[in-house]
Specification:
The chain is mainly beta. The chain is built from four helices and 19 strands. Helix content is about 10%, strand content about 35%.
């Protein structure tokens, strides 16, 4: 971010955003990074100490995926820096706040670009529709729920207590309340969850093509490499057998004006406008394995009490005012 005029950075830690030196995109990146209560909490947390991703998520009671997205925004805006350091389980990233004060020339800041966000959490057992084939089942914090391999269990009220849900084929459908319905205009949507393949009882070399749909549109199909049981999940309860599925991978899908991505990599051309979020009071999310998929290896979805990540299914929407249309007149 060499275009920024840093005044006495080592003493005053002040960032002055000069309009004639800073690009419009950089000014917007800083404004968006600061226009968020969770990101401001992270900046406050990082004074005067430094912190790792896991420490920040734990101490601020945020899902790991959410904290990671916020830190990425702050780092892209040049407000924090990170470096790799040894941790308890390999390498970890350590974050440092760079500035105490950010000064804008307010007349040049376009208020219409201000963006806020809402975050929603859905328990893994709170699906509203399903199609399930055995082997299948659910587990709560203390025991298996109901009978194993019984698809009828997925209609039972006990499903809302689930911390782990698994099936060999089919789908689960969730409905999130839509905070942008008949309000501001959505800018981007992120969905994160911990997930892996499902073998009976488990298998490391077990691929599965798991799809995600939002409001009936296929965002992507992702090939999970394994039903992980090589070690116990960090959060997996002690009563759960070692030979069963232990943990998954935390996956983050994002849909915005440019298309859809998975873990930051483009996966489809579906845009936030295609989802038509303002046309209904809920957001439909469907996750599953097609019967015609090349790798029909099932899936496990982990809640906050199983696996490696203390979160359920998390949906975040960035939203703001509608952009003014640009008009052109033919000469």
């Amino acid at each position: 971010m060499q275009n920024f005029d840093r005044q006495a950075r080592n003493q005053t830690r002040t960032l002055v955003v000069e309009n004639e030196l800073v690009t419009h995109e950089h000014r917007i990146a800083i404004a968006k990074a600061l226009a968020s209560a969770p990101r401001l909490r992270i900046l406050q947390y990082l004074v005067p100490k430094i912190g790792s991703l896991s420490e920040i998520a734990r101490d601020l009671d945020m899902p790991i995926a959410t904290a990671s997205l916020h830190l990425s925004n702050l780092e892209a805006a040049g407000l924090v820096s990170s470096q790799t350091a040894p941790g308890k389980r390999g390498q970890q990233r350590i974050y440092t706040r760079l500035y105490d004060t950010v000064v804008f020339n307010l007349p040049e800041l376009e208020q219409s670009d201000a963006v806020d966000h809402i975050e929603l959490t859905m328990p893994v057992g709170a699906f509203v529709d399903h199609e399930v084939s055995a082997p299948c089942g659910m587990a709560g914090a203390d025991s298996v729920i109901g009978k194993l391999d019984d698809p009828l269990l997925f209609y039972a009220p006990e499903r809302f207590k689930a911390q782990l849900v698994w099936l060999s084929q089919g789908y689960l459908k969730y409905r999130f309340p839509n905070p942008t319905y008949d309000r501001d205009y959505p800018k981007s949507l992120q969905l994160s969850l911990e997930i892996c393949s499902e073998a009976a009882p488990s298998a490391l070399d077990w691929q599965s093509d798991i799809f995600l749909e939002i409001n009936g549109l296929r965002i992507s199909a992702w090939t999970c490499p394994s039903d992980f049981s090589d070690r116990r999940g960090n959060l997996t309860p002690g009563w759960w057998p070692n030979w069963n599925s232990q943990y998954g991978l935390l996956k983050v899908w994002q849909v915005d004006d440019e298309g859809s991505s998975l873990d930051g990599r483009p996966v489809s051309n579906v845009t936030i406008a295609d989802l038509k979020l303002r046309e209904r009071p809920f957001i439909a999310v469907r996750i599953g394995v097609d019967d015609h998929a090349e790798n029909r290896g099932g899936m496990n979805i982990f809640g906050r009490g199983f696996g490696n990540h203390p979160q359920d299914i998390v949906l975040q929407i960035d939203y703001g005012p509608q952009q003014s249309p640009i008009c052109a007149t033919a000469g």
